[in-house]
Design brief:
This protein has 790 residues and is α+β, with helices and mostly antiparallel strands. Helix content is 22%, strand content 21%. Belongs to the sulfatase family.
Length: 790
């Protein structure tokens, strides 16, 4: 109990003792009397950061390879990143995980990814500890630690640390940003998004109810606006409080789309092709001291499924289109640099640049998800496996649309290997191409470089080292508990001394890696690797060994020369795997398994008029791989009524049912192929029905029917043999009475806008039917979609 009078026991100067049940006074540090005149006020001290504590900004890019920025050898214009490198440090031997969610979990917690719960991407839930796809209750985040040290904490951009089933209303938000230590959040909880028409944006803990995006909208600009606004707003209210800004870009993940002015800047700059770009970037890296002269560069990957052809062997048409794809990518990198510049300009205006620690890095290496020839139909490219041979993964479009808001493109994997210069392989593999990425760190006030120090550090480091390094540099303590639970001990180590003194040895001497059966283990300059290609041998790795001190690009396997080292590191990998909950490695249908209680998502649902757009995953369960029926209930549709009854999807794939010019219209956008059917509406219609019959060949046959006031339903139109929307499509969820966010059919949007229905719409009911697509097809499609969605 607090003090009463002078000793808290009552009776002093005749004051009455506080009754024992009056618990509201517990912890009060002043004096309590019967009146305020007899009492001394007290205020709980605010948590304040140490005097002079630096701001911290972490800028994380998605799917950007080692050589994609100027300080790491790129020809792309990145003056703002060059500025960070000129004042700070480049880590040339920094490693991350091979896909996104694990990297983000490791970065924000300092825990190895499987221990953090993210052995894979947050798009499934097989029911094992290392693959729970939610941050554990005892895993402290960097934001939580910094907030406990008196920091303001803000996050913008991509999150992807909450399972997709938990993105809908009514689901747990335990792994959302605000529940993980951030004061504010704005961005996309998904693993990817459209740059012109995001399927769903979140502000703090709520969906931003967007019907139509502005004509000049671009998501990188939007999240940059929010980042700058957070900084300015804090300073307008508090001149001294340090802040942590976690700025996680949605770029460079596909679908690739760029603003016209940025795209114009790179038109024609990649006609020389990926072989020349790789040579030029490697020469720049050697000249900068990243690698000594004579270091071997990895040749083009030749393994089936990973190979890239010589540029000179492509046709002229292929060269033109493939160069366009890279122009889009370069324009997006340029856009990121502009975003960095806006953050720096804000810090400059506030006079806080010198005392701000800025980290810039990528979550994993450049990707091969565009396939051998790239694609103009991004979500169709996701659909691999035993689908029919006539499945078109690259729907032709006007070449001038490449990079625009109308289609989603991705470059061929030859550009992915150029992105990862000088390394082998890509995102998703444990070879260097998947896990070695650029890393910049700048803090002029606290890490000023000595004369002659170029800021280049060649020491091995890992993504788990970011949190302990930042805390060490800022001189901050870590709480021992989270929500009453003892906090997990971090796996990462501080590399602050390496930054201060290049002669110091690296404190991070060994590290395991695993994703999708691919394995890796680093120890003291040796790296053991396996490339998983045979599902029947997932636990029988075919080890390769590399001396990465002399062969950083992993070009020469020396396993046959050092069998004892192979055995030593293989045993070390096994011990690390058990310790970090890597096992079990998935090799059966559990690879796409979800919680049994998700089956209820396939039950019929009635969506009332006025309901906000449904979340993507919830919407997809109602239709994918199965028959389904859509019943639209209206009051009598009068002459002149028009507009959208229901829409599901966007330019990347979907379907829309609408009334126009006295006709019922139904259109299906199969990854860019648009087909229509229609019929006269007639009089007295009070309901419209769409029936989808799924086939084993991953097609739908559609029937449209009208219901009159007497309850008689009549079939009026059909649309057969349409490609099913599966994998990650439709990307935008179901909207009732309007074609919200991205347009399903472009010419309809250009004619009528979002085309809100003018009649009296009551509801739309979805009734899912039986799944018709064979299980092996579903499993293979879903496995690839999950891996590529990161």
């Amino acid at each position: 109990m607090p003090e009463v009078g002078s000793n808290g026991t009552g009776g002093v100067d005749g004051q009455q003792q506080i009754p024992s049940g009056a618990r509201g006074y517990d912890g009060f540090g002043g004096r309590i009397g019967r009146t305020s005149a007899e009492s001394t006020p007290w205020w709980k001290p605010e948590t304040k950061a140490p005097a002079g504590a630096p701001n911290i900004v972490v800028i994380l890019i998605d799917d950007m390879g080692y050589s994609d920025i100027g300080p790491f050898g790129s020809e792309i214009d990145t003056p703002n990143l060059n500025r960070l490198a000129d004042s700070g440090y480049r880590l040339s031997n920094y490693h991350t995980t091979s896909v996104c969610s694990p990297a983000r979990a490791a970065l924000l917690t300092g825990l190895n990814p499987h221990r953090a719960g993210y052995g894979s991407v947050a798009n499934f839930d097989p029911g094992f500890p290392g693959l729970r796809m939610e941050l554990a209750d005892d895993a402290l985040s960097l934001a939580e630690i910094l907030r406990a040290n008196g920091y303001a904490t803000h996050a913008v951009g991509k999150w992807h640390l909450a399972r997709d089933t938990n993105l809908a209303p009514g689901r747990t938000r335990d792994s959302w940003p605000l529940q993980r230590g951030f004061d504010s959040y704005y961005g996309s909880l998904e693993g990817l998004n459209s740059f012109y028409y995001p399927n769903e944006l979140i502000s703090d803990n709520s969906v931003v109810d967007v019907e139509e995006y502005p004509s000049d909208y671009y998501v990188t600009d939007d999240i940059t606006d929010k980042a700058v606004a957070r900084i300015k707003s804090l300073r307008a209210h508090d001149a001294d409080k340090p802040f942590f800004l976690y700025f996680s870009h949605i770029a460079m993940h596909g679908p690739h789309q760029a603003k016209p002015e940025d795209l114009a800047k790179y038109r024609g700059r990649y006609t020389e092709g990926w072989d020349a770009v790789r040579r030029n970037r490697f020469d720049a890296q050697v000249e900068s001291g990243f690698f000594p002269p004579g270091t071997p560069i990895a040749e083009r990957n030749t393994e089936p499924g990973y190979d890239a052809p010589p540029w000179d062997e492509l046709t002229e048409e292929e060269q033109l289109r493939f160069a366009r794809y890279q122009e889009v990518y370069a324009a997006m990198v340029d856009s990121i640099d502009q975003s960095v510049g806006r953050v720096l300009d804000t810090l400059d205006e506030l006079g806080e640049t010198d005392n701000t620690i800025i980290v810039f890095t990528s979550d994993n290496g450049g990707t091969a998800e565009g396939g051998a020839v790239g694609t103009r139909s991004y979500f169709s490219q996701f659909v691999h496996g035993p689908v029919p041979s006539d499945w078109v993964r690259d729907v032709p479009h006007d070449e001038e649309l490449i990079g625009s808001e109308k289609i989603g493109v991705h470059y061929p994997r030859g550009w992915g290997q150029a992105s990862n210069t000088p390394f082998r392989f890509y995102k998703g593999q444990t070879f260097a191409g998947g896990v070695r990425v650029p890393f910049l760190l700048s803090w002029p006030a606290g890490l000023r470089r000595a004369d002659g120090d170029t800021g280049l550090r060649k020491h091995y480091s890992y993504v788990t080292d970011i949190t302990p390094t930042l805390l060490d540099l800022a001189g901050l303590e870590t709480p021992t508990h989270r929500n009453g639970l003892p906090a997990q001990e971090r796996d990462g180590v501080s590399i602050a001394e390496v930054l201060r003194d290049a002669t110091q040895p690296t404190p991070h001497t060994e590290q395991y890696a695993e994703f999708g059966g691919h394995r890796g283990f680093y120890r003291d300059g040796w790296k053991l690797l396996s490339l998983h290609t045979d599902p029947t041998r997932v636990d029988d790795p075919q080890w390769q060994l590399f001396d990465v001190e002399s062969d950083p690009a992993e070009t020469t396997d020396v396993a046959h020369l050092f069998p004892e080292k192979v055995q030593e590191l293989a045993e070390a990998w096994d011990r690390a795997a058990w310790h970090n909950t890597v096992f079990p490695i998935l090799n059966d249908r559990k690879a796409v398994q979800r919680r049994p209680d998700e089956r209820r998502l396939a039950e019929p649902v009635k969506i009332l008029a006025g309901t906000p757009t449904l979340e993507r995953y919830r919407s997809s369960v109602l239709i994918q791989y199965r028959d389904f029926t859509i019943d639209v209930a209206t009051h009598e549709i009068a002459a002149g009524d028009e507009g959208v009854l229901v829409a599901h999807g966007d330019p990347h794939g979907g379907y829309v049912l609408y009334v126009e010019d006295g006709r019922i219209m139904f259109a299906v956008n199969s990854y860019g192929r648009v087909a229509h059917t229609s019929a006269p509406l007639g009089e007295g219609v009070v309901g419209v029905q769409v029936r989808a019959e799924a086939t084993e060949s991953v097609r739908w046959n559609f029937t449209v029917a009208l219901t009159d006031g007497a309850g008689v339903t009549t079939d009026v139109a059909t649309l057969d043999d349409q490609f099913q929307l599966v994998g990650m499509a439709p990307w935008t969820g179901i909207s009732v009475g309007v074609d919200a966010r991205g347009p399903v059919v472009w010419d309809l949007r250009e004619r009528r806008g979002t085309f809100r229905f003018t009649g009296r719409l009551r509801s739309v009911t979805y009734t899912p039917g039986p799944v018709r697509v064979p299980e092996p097809v579903i499993q293979e499609v879903e496995e690839l979609a999950e891996a590529m969605a990161d």
